[in-house]
Amino acid sequence: MIEAVKIGNRLVGPQHTPFVIAEACVNHNGDFKVAEQMVYSAHAMGADCIKFQMHVPENEMLREVPNSDNFDEPLWDILEKTELTLDQHKQLKKLCEQIGIMYACTPFSRDASDILEKVGVDFYKIGSGEMTNLPLMEHVARKKKPMIVSTGMCEMNEIQETVDLIKSIGTPLILTHCVSAYPAPYERVNLDLIPIYQNKFQCPIGLSDHTRGIYTVLGAVALGACVLEKHFTFDRMQKGPDHPVSIEPYELGELSKGARAIFLARGTERKIFPEEQEIVAWARESVVTECFIKAGTTIGEKMVWVKRPGPSNGAIPAKFLKQVIGKRALRDIAPDSQVKWDDLAQ
After folding, report:
1. 42 near 252, Cβ under 8 Å?
2. Cβ-contact 342, 330 below 8 angstroms
3. Can you say how many angstroms the Cα of residue 302 is from the centroid of all Cα atoms in its chain?
4. 36-68: b or e for each residue (b if 16 or more CB lie within 10 Å)?
5. For residue 86, how many C-alpha atoms fall within 13 Å in the half-sphere facing its CB?
6. What is d(CA 242, CA 172) in angstroms, rounded to the nearest whole number?
């Protein structure tokens, strides 16, 4: 059995309700008031956690880093414009604690992870771009706080290297399956990797999703995903690298409710449940007469058939119809009557 990982006061693993992370990223556009409102909204929509980002550009990248199509301007410039201060991150964490949602933040460099120690995060969420950054992985892992690591843009052997490193340090680990395309086409998502990851890496597995909408996230729950991360915004029509693939508050609410419903719906028990018993009485069938049957008559095929309601008070279940045919009636049986075993000579 895969062991759950404790994050704050929450157990995260296959046997526990999915841990829903609203990824605020830089969708606040550097406006602290917007960031605060995102906290309130994520909490109201049922998310367990809201996650921001911590960037220290000079420790993270060179200015000449190339851009992907989801950026309208250089990444360095975007990060400078949208970055929140250390004090603002502390205020956000305090707000999260006050209203009952977990604060989280992704570091993109060694310095950023050290700054987050001052904020006091419960765990580290590491993005796909850092999956192969083994020096950073080791630096964060040695803080001995749980790590949730995304696996986009990686080969299996690269994931294995990172898993081996983190496990060798003894740091609790959760992986999130991810496809780092903005948006990710459905045919690239490969949700069936979730149970494969679970078996291969022997740790809880989640999904960090970049498709449009929430369908794939809900599907992941049925396959055992125990962490669900989705970009979150107030308006996906805004300009910015992540707004177009983010979900809005109503969708986050549907994701949170749907994920918990699907989790409760998983299971392998097959029996007649108490809630079904009342339905059994009318939904099943019993053997009934198609005509008047006189005492002493040998029952033929055209004299009986099966109809509702189900068997009760000695009535014969439908599955025994063939055993009734050829029996002798011990008493008169009216038409359209349930046949009982004590009506028949044995």
Report:
1. yes
2. yes
3. 54
4. eebbebbbebbbbbbbbbbbbbeebeeeeeeee
5. 11
6. 29
Q: How far is CA 38 from CA 24, 91, 102, 182, 234, in A?
A: 7, 13, 13, 21, 8
- With cut-offs at 50, 70 and 90, classify the pLDDT of residue 242: confident
Q: How far apart are CA 19 and CA 12, in angstroms?
A: 7
Alpha carbon distance 201, 240 (integer Å): 35
- The pLDDT value recorded for residue 297 is 97
pLDDT digits (tens, 9 = 90+) for 23-61: 998 899 899 999 999 999 999 999 999 999 998 877 877
Confidence bin at 133 (pLDDT 50/70/90) = very high
Q: What is the rounded average pLDDT of the residues 329-346?
A: 96
Read off the amino acid at residue 169. I
What is the residue type of 246? S
Q: Which of 74, 35, 33, 73 is nearest to 54 (CA)?
A: 35
Q: Are strands 304-307 and 286-289 parallel, antiparallel or unpaired?
A: antiparallel
Model confidence at 253: pLDDT above 80? yes
pLDDT digits (tens, 9 = 90+) for 101-118: 999 999 999 999 999 999
DSSP 149-209: EE-TT--HHHHHHHHHHHHHHT--EEEEEE---SSPPHHHH-TTHHHHHHHHH-S-EEEEE
- The span from the CA of 337 to the CA of 341, in Å, is 13
List residues bridging with 173 in a β-sheet.
Answer: 147
Q: Locate tokens 């296959």: which residue?
A: 14
Output the CA torsion 70→157→14→166 (10° steps): -90
User: Cα–Cα distance between 247 and 236 in angstroms, integer?
Assistant: 7
CA 233 to chain centre: 20
CA 250, 28, 21, 102 dihedral sign is negative
The end-to-end CA distance of the chain, in Å, is 53
Q: Over the stretch 145-180, which tens digit does the pLDDT of each residue have?
A: 999 999 999 999 999 999 999 999 999 999 999 999
